[in-house]
Design a protein that fits this description.
Layout (H helix, E strand, L loop, with lengths): L1 E2 L2 H12 L19 E6 L5 E8 L12 E9 L8 H15 L4 E7 L3 H5 L4 E2 L5 E3 L2 E9 L5
Parallel strand pairs: 4-5
Antiparallel strand pairs: 1-2, 2-3, 3-4, 5-8, 6-8, 7-8
């Protein structure tokens, strides 16, 4: 597990999050923003097999929760899914955020992925349903001050 440069996340963003589509923008204007960071897991050959990106962004439905960090682009290579790699990346990110004094972690999650996040303590934020090119989503959040 290590910090990644934004460019190191782009291949998995395109493959997993954008379904391989080239008409969807995979670079985020937040990638180089102050406080942004990217975390990834590699296989034995050093190939990035899981990614996640974190940005200091206030949650639109919980502007009072600060400091807030938005999780984006959580993705695991298709051949490595359901092997605990994504869980390891998210565990490490949550550990870092709690150690660093983080208060609130939030994301827009595909409805199909919500059970994964709920295992880490995330909860769906009421009234946050939306649709995107990749399907229905909800905002989810984790109070980082809560015990594991």
């Amino acid at each position: 597990m290590r910090d990644l440069a934004p460019e190191e996340t782009h291949a998995l963003r395109r493959e997993v999050s954008a379904g391989g589509r080239t008409d969807i923008q995979i670079r985020s204007p937040l990638d180089g923003a102050p406080g942004a960071w990217h975390l990834g897991a590699m296989d034995a050959a050093g190939v990035v097999i899981a990614i996640s990106s974190y940005y200091r962004v206030t949650c639109p439905v919980r502007p009072d929760a600060r400091p807030a960090v938005q999780l984006q682009n959580m993705a695991v290579a298709p051949g490595r899914q359901r092997q605990g790699v994504g869980s390891a990346v998210l565990d490490e990110a949550i550990r870092r955020l709690r150690t660093g004094g983080g208060v609130f972690l939030w994301a827009s999650a595909r409805d199909a992925a919500i059970p994964f996040y709920e295992r880490f303590g995330f909860a769906v934020l009421e009234g946050s349903a939306s649709a995107s090119a990749t399907g229905p989503h909800h905002l989810i959040a984790l109070d980082l001050r809560a015990a594991d």
